[in-house]
Predict the structure.
Amino acid sequence: MPVLEAIRQRYPDADLSFLEIDVSDFGSVRRAADRFLSEHAALDVLVNNAGVAGTSGLSKDGFDLTYATNHLGPFLLTNLLLPRLRASPSARIVNVSSVAQMNIKSIDWSGLERRSSPKRSGFRDYSMTKLMNMLHCRELARRLEGTSVVACAVHPGVVASQIWRAVPRPLGWLIKLFMLSNEQGAETPLFCATSEEPAIVSGGYYHRCREVSANPLADDPANALELWRRSEAAVK
């Protein structure tokens, strides 16, 4: 595994392992979670960073790939790993959201329903999943209040990552010219994953390593609770 070898070259004593997972596939998520639970007593940091945009297809479970990858899979993984996060003396859950959430003025829950045929998901679908990442964070913070687990969400910036792999190539190449590098995009997630409390507020939304305002729809606890209810029904 090239990434593990690169880390070992810099840190020869690092204890590393690789856990294969496709977050768009609930079966893969469950297998990965089962393996982690069987091998580890605690989990200090979970960063939900997988994401796609502009997809045209269905997941193995019959959901739009954008919604399955960006929200439903990470939602399931987080829930399955909560026992190990609770076992940590100080754990962090970091949902990588996006400023794209600010484009949403009303919530469309239909993306959490199974489909019989695929359609190309547009920027609104991507933005909707990023709002869902924020709502998921807020409900996690509420449910984990009083525990050792802190949940937050971040906008990493517009990053030239493989999230744009489903965008037609000429357009994808062009837009990446104006984006941040992967290293720059990692700064705020790392800040939220490693900073000492009380620097990080559970339920907070961060950009450029400071707390900022999220979409006003994320400030309504009823929306966060409704997302949780619908997401639970979907992953079952």
The longest strand covers residues 149-155. The radius of gyration is 17 Å. The beta strands are 45-48, 91-96, 149-155, 205-207, 210-212. The chain has one domain: 2-235.
